[in-house]
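User: quick one, fold this
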Amino acid sequence: MSRILAWRGPVLMLVGLFAGWQVLYWIVGEIALRSPGETIRYTWNLLQRPTFWPHIAETAKAFAAAIAIAITLGLAVGLALGFSRLAGQVFEPMLVALYSVPKVTLYPILLLTFGLGISAKIAFGALHGFIPIALFTINAVRNVRPILIKTGRVLNYNTSELVWRILIPAALPEIFSGIRIGLALTMIGTVLGEMFASQRGLGYMLMSAIGLHNVDIIMSITFLLIAFAAVVSSILLAIDRRLHRRV
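Assistant:
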């Protein structure tokens, strides 16, 4: 019974979203939207095309590399700045200021640095996800109870042992929250990077469809991206809640 109640909210939300989508389609019409049924059918046909999968593979490869870089750098910077109070006071405001800058304005610099290949897309995606992961990690480390740090020092842990045995396990719930948010932002950054300067990928297809006013492609790719983000976010949110309950 409890499992049924747990699924009731997401199911009702999904039904409400599709109902709202259908109503909006009735209001706007074919010029700007497609109905849920039409979009799902076109998406299914799109997935049957062999020429479509290389674009998915390109986006998936760029996204995987970007999220790996964002998590690695975010954790490294967050742990370093959170553990060192002086370094945190100096560099955390810089991270916050960089986070407030629209990332699109930095994309020309990334293009000049990395060129028009996949490297620029990876860098742009990683830039979106790195900062929130770092900021969440900084706050997570600062919120670790001092008694745990003192216990590690009493046990004569060196810095690396203190980080891996004390800080990361104690701060893991908040760190994971940052990773969950960073993953979504990294996906947005990767697709945006493909939209501006790329010859392959879902972002490139989306930008081309916008230029041609191909509503079917626009709706299908948007639907695929939202569906992927919703599934991954739901899984990560469930893990996140379980980690916080254990605290």
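User: anything notable?
Assistant: The radius of gyration is 21 Å.
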